Amino acid sequence: MRTKDFLGKLDHDRIVAAIGAAEAKTSGQIRVYVQRGELDGDALDYAQKKFQKLGMQATKERNGVLILVLPRARKFAVIGDEGVHQKCGDEFWQELVERMRAHFQKENFTDALVEAIEEAGKLLTRHFPKPAAPKNELSDEIIEG
């Protein structure tokens, strides 16, 4: 699917609102990145590189989560920084990806992203509660590359 078509099918306001709602309860940070073009390699490897390039490892508690979608390549990945991954392990990510995949197969793209954001938010809230003086360390906007 062309990235432009994918982006056109997203309810951007609903996704940004979901990020804001999730982050309102935690010090964790969630970002959605939609990458244009093809990808021959592994989406997870690419997500890890993009995570670093976006500076997401710079959060104080190492509690960033990146949801990466490559519509043209029909690939996606969800990763958490080391602080998050230590709390949940591989099983959480695998379940989240499977739930997203089910939505993507039905072309319910916004639902896939919102559910992933909400689930990541629950995890972050449980392990990284909102501090007394919260600070949004990363933008909530959908990033396009």
Query: Numbering strands along the chain, what is their spatial order in the largest sheet?
Result: 3-2-1-4
Approximately what portion of the residues adopt beta-strand conformation?
5-15%
User: N- to C-terminal separation?
Assistant: 16 Å
Q: CATH first level: which class?
A: Alpha Beta
Broad shape: globular
Low-pLDDT parts are none
Task: Report the major sheet.
Answer: 4 strands, mixed
Please state the CA-atom Rg, rounded to the nearest Å: 14 Å
> What would CATH call the architecture?
Roll
- Mean pLDDT across residues: 92
The tally of beta strands, per DSSP, is 4
Structural class: alpha/beta
Q: Number of domains in the coordinates?
A: 1
Q: What do we call the CATH topology?
A: Diaminopimelate Epimerase, Chain A, domain 1
Helix percent reads 40-55%
| Element string (H = helix, E = strand) | HHEHEEHHE
* Number of H- or I-type helical stretches: 5
Describe this structure in words.
This protein is an alpha/beta fold. The chain has one domain: Diaminopimelate Epimerase, Chain A, domain 1 (Roll). The chain contains 5 helices and 4 strands; from the N terminus they run ααβαββααβ. It has a 4-stranded mixed sheet with strand order 3-2-1-4, sandwiched between helices. β1, α3 and β2 form a beta-alpha-beta unit. It is globular and about 45 Å long. The protein starts with a helix and ends with a strand. The model has no long low-confidence stretch (mean pLDDT about 90).
